[in-house]
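Hi everyone,

Forwarding the result from last night's run.
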Amino acid sequence: MSKIKPWVDTLTSSDRKQAIQLSILLGDSTDDDDSMTNYWDAIRSIGADMEGFPNEFKPKLRGPRDGGLRKEFREKLHNVSNLVKDKGSVIYNHGRPSLENITVKARFCDNEMGLEKERKIRQICEEYNLKDKNIHIHLRDCSPKRKIGRYERSGRSGAYQGGNRWEPGN
């Protein structure tokens, strides 16, 4: 409160100032920790967007603070494929949001469709100024594999290797 009380005294008279002063008064007069927490939360939520409120006491914001830049980027990637993941967070360069530390990872089949998805993702990343070193796209072999039948032997099974062991002459 040593930083909040002088700040409140500098404010012009308003309902918000009175609410903060009342919360300080009630918080100082209570011995219950839960009540003190509630009053402190009220002071922070009322004063956080007022001019001059100390930054260290502002409530922590959750979610994107980039004006939706990362959300927009993720939606564009998701429109290409839901197999694309991005890691990292938005950082600011000269006060403007940037996606330069984001890493894009994806895995596609090594076929015409996979190559088309790779091209679209690289185009989106270029639009947002992502460097090639931050784009990791792996093309894998998706050709159909021959499956072994239910009754077909695929290797040695114990001491008996097929055939009729009751053949005449055995």
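Strands lie at 85-87, 91-93, 96-98, 103-109, 135-140.

Cheers,
N.
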